[in-house]
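Our consortium's second objective concerns turning raw sequence data into structural hypotheses that experimental partners can test. To show how far this objective has progressed, the report includes one record in full. It was chosen at random from the queue rather than selected for favorable results. The single chain below, 196 residues long, was entered without modification.
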Amino acid sequence: MSKTVEFYFDLGSPATYLAYTQLPKICAQIDSQLIYIPILLGGIFKATGNASPATIPAKGAYMFQDLDRYARRYDVPLKFNPNFPINTLMLMRAVSGMQLRHPERFLTFIDCLFKAIWVEGRNLDDPATVATVLTQNGFDPTEVLALTADEDVKAALKNNTEKAVQRGVFGAPSMFVDNQLFFGQDRLDFVLEALA
């Protein structure tokens, strides 16, 4: 039986975006399954007492330089979003809703949102901008907004976040292989080793 990578993610993390660009290739290389688990990073921070590195000016400046280095290494686009940090509550509810109600469109959905934030630098704190991005990518903003109000969807995101904390997750991206936690997009070589 092939191994799995459980990928705990929030759209608002640039490191998570970079991991997102690489994990499908890693899983294809080792013939393993990638399981996407949406979480609310703000909820993780609150539960664990953690905070974004960007809250410490020197560390934040370094982090974005380092992420830029990795983007060049991975040969993927990355643009610092001038609207960072983004409140992702509604976005991650939408992601959870798409996974729950329209799994066949889930990957296309997260792809357009990751790109809007981390390639195009769009302000996804602004509902009008979100609606434009969704429309441009073939999604109905009204239907997506309805998903964010769905009680089952809200519960799914909350449960994912709570279970992540119980498993020791303190930030994103977090990946599990055989119940081993790997934190950060700069730990993908360990993920690869664990799969192999």
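The partners drew two points from this record. The first helix runs from residue 14 to 29. The chain has a mean pLDDT of 96. Both points have been shared with the crystallography group to help prioritize constructs.
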